[in-house]
Design goal:
Strand order of the largest sheet: 3-4-5-2-1-6-7-11-12
CATH topology of the largest domain: Rossmann fold
Distance between the termini: 9 Å
CATH architecture of the largest domain: 3-Layer(aba) Sandwich
Oligomer: single chain
CATH class of the largest domain: Alpha Beta
Largest sheet: 9 strands, mixed
Number of strands: 18
Number of helices: 20
Structural class: alpha/beta
Shape: globular
Bound molecules: alpha-D-glucopyranose
Helix content: 25-40%
Length: 476
């Protein structure tokens, strides 16, 4: 296996809305270091153009049809850590402030997918594998195998479709097929059909050679009606081709020994003084009472129902009755933002809500907290728990998806574990688990230290998973 093209809606360091960008920004470079010709293609959004355009090189320009309309398309590129990144330009569709959430998303990503497929022949670049990610890319296997399938170069490429979050599916009216230049045959035969229309994510599941997702547990969960979001029966048909491979993180970017955004760098050897220095700096920065003996609990997340934020707001008084300080960073649903603003107003010095996305502050929360909260309803993989373990900040998670696969819970008897977890999506269970964490933090410092050691020595890099990717590619 020699070459892979990752197709996605976002990638770091260029743009990010969620964990997908972390994955696309880090896995390919590890594959490249292992000798794979790994490349990435994403849309050229406005914030990317504003920041990076001067370093881009024009790769190819062509015109193509999106439905009846002839569209110009320019593909730019740049190279990062041995990985070539392509950017697809279209002023009307992509020169906007954020990646998704527009009423014409179906059309925007029809354009994107057609353009990805077309650029291959224009550049005479046909990778061995196309690694498609989430709904924005789901039609690509179908296009390559069916619409362009009479061309061996398209048919011979192997297609992976990777699910990062099955709740976002890209479901549209079947009329959208006309943009792809195909008739409704595969709506009528059911293979593209989702509800009354068609689904991009469903198309990816049906037409890819292999389906992947981002943890073993999530791979099992999405086969059930509780998590499958009505795709469970289709996935059941692909069960033998479905793999869960857990995400890694970029361990160069997330390294407490070298992280330039921290008040003090540290490793396990000087953990105690390093953690205290970062805690103090965080308390000062955010206006919390400066105390080195208090357990600081951090959370960095999109503040949505999925992330379990209402479990926190429901039990806020009880939670803040524990001897702890709480720091929350993120934006999201207005109810959640409202609760956390109120929380800060009513508990000055003990609780802080920073509304916004602030990458540097995120680093300092990972480093300055003792405990990191992720009470998610579902979590395909989760990245934050991996980062927090690397920073010696024990994660407190709900046992779902990748959280279950990566956080071994504290065992009072064997003293093993690298975090805390609870099973039911229930605010009392969250509260009780927080109480247990506080007890261990204050009364069993040796157990805590052992867990910090396990957490910090855990391999959260891409090494292992990148090898799993390669094995799956090779099997194809
Ligand atoms: C999505 C999932 C998250 C996962 C990320 C990257 O954002 O919600 O759990 O870690 O994709 O795969």
């Amino acid at each position: 296996m020699k070459s892979v093209l990752f197709v996605a809606g976002e990638a770091l360091p260029f743009i990010k809305t969620g964990g997908l960008a972390d994955v696309i920004g880090s896995a390919p470079k590890v594959l490249a270091a292992k000798g794979v010709d790994a490349r990435v293609v994403i849309p050229l959004y406005k914030p990317i153009a504003e920041k990076y355009f001067s370093e881009f090189k024009e790769e190819v320009f062509f015109e193509m049809f999106v439905g009846p309309r002839q569209c110009p398309c320019t593909v730019y590129s740049t190279v990062r850590d041995g990985v070539k990144y392509y950017f697809i330009q279209h002023a009307g569709y992509f020169e906007r402030d954020v990646c998704y959430g527009y009423p014409d998303d179906g059309e925007r990503f029809a354009f994107f997918q057609i353009c990805v497929v077309e650029m291959l022949v224009r550049m005479n670049y046909f990778p061995d594998i196309i690694h498609n990610n989430d709904w924005q890319t789901g039609m690509i296997p179908y296009l390559c195998k069916v619409k362009y399938g009479s061309d061996d170069r398209y048919r011979n490429m192997k297609q992976i479709f990777m699910i990062h979050n099955i709740a976002f599916q890209g479901n549209y009216s079947s009329d959208i097929l006309s943009l792809f230049g195909v008739d409704k045959t595969h709506f009528y035969d059911g293979s593209l059909r989702m509800y009354d229309g068609i689904g991009y994510m469903k198309a990816g599941i049906v037409y890819a050679d292999k389906v992947m997702t981002v943890s073993n547990t999530y791979a099992k969960e999405i086969l059930t009606s509780e998590f499958g979001e009505n795709l469970e029966t289709v996935l059941e048909l692909r069960k033998d081709d479905l793999y869960g491979v857990v995400n890694g993180i970029d361990v160069d970017l997330w390294n407490p020994k070298t992280d330039p955004m921290l008040a003090a760098n540290y490793s396990f050897r000087n953990f105690k003084s390093g953690k205290l220095a970062n805690k103090k700096a965080l308390q000062e920065e955010l206006g919390l009472e400066v105390r080195d003996d208090v357990m600081v609990v951090g959370m960095v997340a999109r503040l949505t129902w999925q992330k379990g934020v209402y479990l926190i707001s429901q039990r806020l008084n009880e939670i803040l009755g524990i001897n702890l300080q709480l720091v929350i960073l993120g934006t999201g649903e207005s109810d959640a933002e409202y609760y956390f603003r109120e929380m800060e107003n009513n508990h000055k010095g003990q609780a802080v809500y920073y509304r916004g996305y602030n990458e540097e502050l995120a680093h300092r929360i990972y480093a300055g907290s003792d405990l990191f909260l992720m009470p998610s309803l579902y979590e395909p993989c989760g990245i934050s728990q991996l980062i927090s373990m690397r920073y010696g900040t024990l994660p407190l998670v709900r046992e779902t998806g990748g959280l279950k696969d990566t956080v071994q819970p504290y065992n009072e008897y064997t003293k093993e574990g690298c975090g805390f977890s609870f099973a039911n999506f229930n605010s009392w269970d969250l509260y009780n688990t927080l109480c247990l964490a506080a007890k261990v933090f204050y009364d069993r410092p040796n157990d805590w230290r052992e867990m910090v050691h396990s957490a910090m020595s855990k391999d959260v890099s891409w090494e292992h998973s990148a090898q799993d990717y390669i094995n799956i590619y090779e099997a194809l």
